Amino acid sequence: MNSQSIENYLKVIFNQAIATDEVNTTGIAQALEVSLPSVNSMVKKLAGMGLLEYQKYKPLKITEKGRQMAARIIRKHRLTEMYLVEKMGFGWEEVHDIAEQLEHVQSAAFFDRMDELLGYPQRDPHGSPIPNKNGQIATQEYQSLADCRPGEQVELKALSHTSDEFLKYLNSKDLKLGIKVEILEVEAFDRNMKVAYGGHQEVLSALVCSKLLVS
Amino acid sequence: MNSQSIENYLKVIFNQAIATDEVNTTGIAQALEVSLPSVNSMVKKLAGMGLLEYQKYKPLKITEKGRQMAARIIRKHRLTEMYLVEKMGFGWEEVHDIAEQLEHVQSAAFFDRMDELLGYPQRDPHGSPIPNKNGQIATQEYQSLADCRPGEQVELKALSHTSDEFLKYLNSKDLKLGIKVEILEVEAFDRNMKVAYGGHQEVLSALVCSKLLVS
DNA sequence: TTAAATAGTTAGCATAGACTAACAAATTTA
DNA sequence: TAAATTTGTTAGTCTATGCTAACTATTTAA
Lengths: 215, 215
What we know:
CATH class of one domain in chain A: Mainly Beta
Largest sheet of chain A: 6 strands, antiparallel
Oligomer: homodimer
Structural class of chain A: alpha+beta
CATH architecture of one domain in chain A: Roll
Strand content of chain A: 15-25%
Number of helices of chain A: 8
Distance between the termini of chain A: 40 Å
CATH superfamily of one domain in chain A: Ferrous iron transport protein A (FeoA)
């Protein structure tokens, strides 16, 4: 089986490929907190396994095989997060680190059972799509709250950033997925937004708005 | 943190210490399916960490510190097995391999939550005691069915062997923990036992009886 | 009680995955 | 466009954990 190291690289590469399409060595090194030479040698190894296309000094490309393998790991991660929240009562800000470890468990039955007990969920607690067993993944067609105009009424569907601090911030503002948000005003100067939801008003910074995905 | 390797060695050493009190290198090597020199060097390392007492050519002794650390790992393993059976619907013959992986997860909250959801169980699905958070573990005071005499009526409490094959055999005979068994006859020649339980009779081999713990 | 068998040890080596130092290519900017 | 900066690469090293071959100590059995 593939080592946890390999799985971690693959996951990071997959995520960067989605975010920017171009994957570069430095980005991987930063995401994994590892040196550039470490990335370089692992990248060559992954290329040798047919998971990446690698040419010296060129941006990396993930192959279909690599993409599928990464999606299966991400499936395990996201199913686990959903399970921890829905069946074990954890908060959405607590589950990342645990899922990060459970995603490496080798047992199809374990994750299939989670999936079944959860009723085959489409999305994880942060709104990210859960790939299916074949590594197919729904594309996220939400827009950022930051791109909405005053008067619009939208529903919070997902987050494009899921750090603990951000999730705790959202908790403190009672912002949860599914909530209906009305945009009242946009400050021209700094793009702060005054919004209304759950019977009260808040001012959200442009930074926060950019990470809230709505439709 | 300790590596998975270290944790696996410690667990095996702990189990052997319970079973035989004397721990020897060869036993560890067989249990972990690694070479003798690998065990030798790891044993020195564990001794250096204060988890074992090691003297050349002498039997190994686990220290209190090592014992506690091992018990905490076994706690995670057994809680996981219980959780998989009770909350996820797995059979007792399916859970070992999954628990073997989950036991290495570093997250007190994760296992504490399992414990809580299970209602703080004392024993795992095979009747083995679950150590508490401080590494204290109840001693098993059951006797083997093989030591019982005709006419006795006992309850199946635990197993002293838990291989998949044995568990599947028990499934096929409808033998579960908690079942009441009456000893009808013991064959002097081979110590086979004729027993009655759940409204029918069975003949159990001496080998099987020796692995069934009752009281 | 000595020879054979078993158990434990040492030395030396392999692989995975990380690192630093030094260098080369590509890109940005003055 | 040439210099400076950033990005990527290579070479060589380190640690963890495994291995085999060769040797030594201990235990068992003839």
